[in-house]
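Prompt: May I have another protein with tokenized structure?
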Amino acid sequence: MSECALAPICLCRGVRGATTVYEDTAEAVVAATRELLQAIIAANDIKASEVASVIFTATPDLAAAPPAVAAREMGWTNVPLLCMQEMPVNGALPRAVRVLIHWNTTTPQDKIVHIYLHDAKKLRPDLVQRERPADLIDRRVTIVGLGLIGGSLALALRDQVAHLAGVDADPRTVALALERGVTHAATTGLAEGVRDADIVVLAAPVRANLAIIEQIGPLLKEGCILMDVGSSKTDVCSAMRKLPAHVIAVGGHPMAGKETAGLKAADGDLFVDRPFVLCGVRHGIPRLVEALVRATGAFPLPLEPERHDRLAAAISHVPYLLSVALVRMVAQVSLTDPWVWTLAATGFGDVSRVAASDATMMEDILVTNRAPVVELATLARTALDELIAAIDPNQEGPIELRAQLVEAQAARLGWARDRR
């Protein structure tokens, strides 16, 4: 029998996948599609030379860029690509991209791995897999700062990397991390903790991270990736540009959290299906960083540092200020009538929840993002003044009260609907 007769049969097979996009911008559409394509390629060992054609579809609410741009940017210049817009369907998954790749392969039909990411997992929960990323299997990762975010990262990554070390200035936190198996190793010494690390993640408060960035460069090996997960990015990315040339730096911020702080509050699923902002500093955003983000269950979202800081001020930092102002107002009322605390129920609890966040951490965030916070807090104060003017019988508000309430109601309901 000839060798040809014994060779596996090569057939043109199809693999499908779907994902959702955080917002309708060209940057977000291309990033989400690239992530989906890379996941399909990795799961099925597909080479660009084997791809026969790719069909993309996008829901009608995605118009900023065709998903096929991601394939072209990945070097698929000789592959026929077809993009189509889906018909509007009531109740359909919003901001979704679907892909069907045909490629020449010896892979049996029952071994093909279809990929569904983020909210698209709801389409085919039977096909959803969370595998150990090949990019991270042999990597050594160190997390500096084992609080809520650092500890949650550790829990998400500990079984997906070759070695996970933790560094924290508090010996009690180091002892707790080792006792609970949060990390494979832990120490209070920065130099010891980052030795031989392929990736170092700074998860301390922002001003502490800035101080660490000033001294950590000489401690890192050639080609080490240094990233942070702080809530403001402009100052951090500026400091990272001064690092030695052998260090690859990336700013990061997972858009997830709790009002409770510390390692005891850490949750390995904290980042699942949440955007993880990445800001390239000098080398763009390495594939290894994107793999680390996906390993936590989050999805990478590239943004410029300044844009991130303004958006974070709008949806995180200023809401914290408003929550603090509310609690301080109620505390003033309680001085003359303490029953106000007894009457406080769900509404007060929902709006005041983030006021319980760690004050030291929040002060750090606010002072490292001063300009956007002041700008948008002033805008919020104007909105509150307009509400007061519409209620006060002694004032003539420029905007009728009901119009303001309906406008806010519609915006909030729209946000909740789009998140589903």
